Here is the input.
Amino acid sequence: MEGIDKVFATLRGRPILDHCLGVMASVPEVAAGVIVVSERNLEQGQYVLMRRGWSVGWSICTGGERRQDSVQRGLERLKDVQWVVIHDVARPCVDRSMVYRALEAVQATGAAVAAVPVTDTVKVVEDGERVVETLDRSRLWAVQTPQVFHRDLLEAAFAQVQDDVTDEATMVERLGHTVNVFKGDYGNLKVTTPQDLAIAEAILASRATVEVLPSA
Here is the structure.
């Protein structure tokens, strides 16, 4: 990101974090939330939360060394919830309908993740340049967030899986538990480069989003 902290990068005049909070706050079923940030971002995260005027249900904490450590810290702050929705703030184009699809899909197995079918041909490459295999695209899905789990299942995964993973669904899979996918959105991109900010700006500008905006 060329030195830009994407969590607080400006998107349509507001920090990326603010966009995600606005969407989550617009879903009545999301009764509580925890923002997990690095220690150096704690003060700025508190400021974003304060601007919302939310003193009940929402809190903020610092994360850990790995993604799964950070999610576990956030989970420990949540009380009296049965279902846990995990969302990567680097995906500011999430919308309400995706959250509702997540809450519906998780009922079947207790674990569900947003995903979209892969549209590109994917090849396995070794030594940085040598193609060794072309994968069957019809069976490949690109996983996104939100990811949603029954709390008991997620806590069991944290207790039993200590290896590094790239998402919580991988931990649940290693327990031998079924994880369902539900329809994500190709517009639900992950901001990774400055160019992605321009794309996200265009996507958000094209939507008539419903969300809770900061109080004046």
